[in-house]
């Protein structure tokens, strides 16, 4: 679907991606202007729609592109040989904070996308978000040493409890951001809160 765009040289791809990411993050889907995107990227509007059929296709491509980049960087850094569930999870939180520092514009776009209310893209974004969570949770749990958990713990239910806890924490963070000026997220506050949850869950489920 995006072969014409992906066959471009990396410099031109980056110009288009960065221009689109900036416009969507600042104005949201409905108010974002493809005229501004092509002006910022230094290309014609006809060329943009040669690569992407319409604004919606560009937006959903950008969401997938940014998510793939984050996930790729994350799995490049995380130590999946660490078998302790809570150590691996704690490391994952720290890596996420590092990535947010290294790629602030990318994360700003992703934050705004997860807060997006436009009916034109909201359903697709929610579906993508759920699919990405399911896929990455399964991969993240691979190789964990489950013998450290209490013998009376039902592992599938326990993993669901932990997953639901952090999904709820994420949802609350996004809800607070939606109400805050500029949709800003205090990542250090989120990290500290997540670490507190991990301590409680570890005491509850480990031997």
From TrEMBL:
Q: Pfam families, from UniProt? A: TetR_N (PF00440)
DNA-binding annotation, residue ranges on this chain = 33-52
Domain named HTH tetR-type is located at: 10-70
Presence of keyword DNA-binding: yes
Alphabetized PROSITE patterns for the sequence: HTH_TETR_1, HTH_TETR_2
Tell me which domain of life the UniProt entry assigns to the organism this sequence originates from.
Bacteria
**Alphabetized UniProt keyword annotations:** DNA-binding
Q: What is this protein called?
A: TetR/AcrR family transcriptional regulator
Organism phylogeny: Bacteria, Bacillati, Bacillota, Bacilli, Bacillales
